[in-house]
């Protein structure tokens, strides 16, 4: 079996590729390098530079490498920026997914693991998000991911596509020191870059109704996430049943304040974060249940918060 990983040169996608190799499955990567890095792709994995909007290229890749399934990680993932760039977001995440599904149908590739997002839920009014929690995305990014799930659902009816979508919140850490988060918008790289530059990291709000006043979220180690993508792929390969969607959540959550304390311990750099105002629309707590994924997709939190921070810091410092 050979799996095409779209966005496989990115932070999450590159970890998925490594998890496939660890499971002795073949991987091929397509990535336009808009946010990924070719150096993140292992030397023995075929790499194609190109866009999933290029249907002809996709057909060539599916043919040349005899692709049997797709793990679709490629996408424009910045929720905040998507508000200013809605058309770009929809083109990359909706049109791109439709073009990819069209090429798969034309070549008879009938299985997909879709990297969705907990952004499909918006700001849920529940303590613990489940797969049945109402969907109410609040950004073009969240909307585009929900539409992607609808496209898969409709292709299941039209062509027999076998699929599942994985929804998750904040992905952190590193499973390989050569692969690290380079996003200019994510918490860990923002904090690390500030510390390395001698600046004080800034957090948004310390007056939430939480134990330490800072927002609580799921933070998930990227290597744990990758394992469940591969577990989903293997279930599809084996013809085993899967849910249409799974939350990859920790069930308890981690506060921003806890992360700042752990960063101090790991880096040895003493600091007290600057406190900015709450961001509009940021809920005090969003935490998801990973119960279904634990049942079917080998999902569990294998790494402590300290291990998440430590692995991310080692990868960041190794890269520089």
TrEMBL record:
Pfam families: Epimerase. It comes from the Bacteria. SUPFAM superfamilies: NAD(P)-binding Rossmann-fold domains (SSF51735). Residues 3-249 form the NAD-dependent epimerase/dehydratase domain. Its cofactor is NAD(+). Pathway: Carbohydrate metabolism; galactose metabolism. It catalyses: UDP-alpha-D-glucose = UDP-alpha-D-galactose. Its EC number is 5.1.3.2. One of its GO terms (biological process) is galactose catabolic process via UDP-galactose, Leloir pathway. InterPro entries: Epimerase_deHydtase, NAD(P)-bd_dom_sf, UDP_G4E. Keywords: Carbohydrate metabolism, Isomerase, NAD. Signal peptide: none annotated. Transmembrane segments: none annotated. GO terms for molecular function: UDP-glucose 4-epimerase activity. Belongs to the NAD(P)-dependent epimerase/dehydratase family. NCBIfam families: galE. This is UDP-glucose 4-epimerase. It comes from Diaminobutyricimonas aerilata. The lineage of its organism: Bacteria, Bacillati, Actinomycetota, Actinomycetes, Micrococcales.
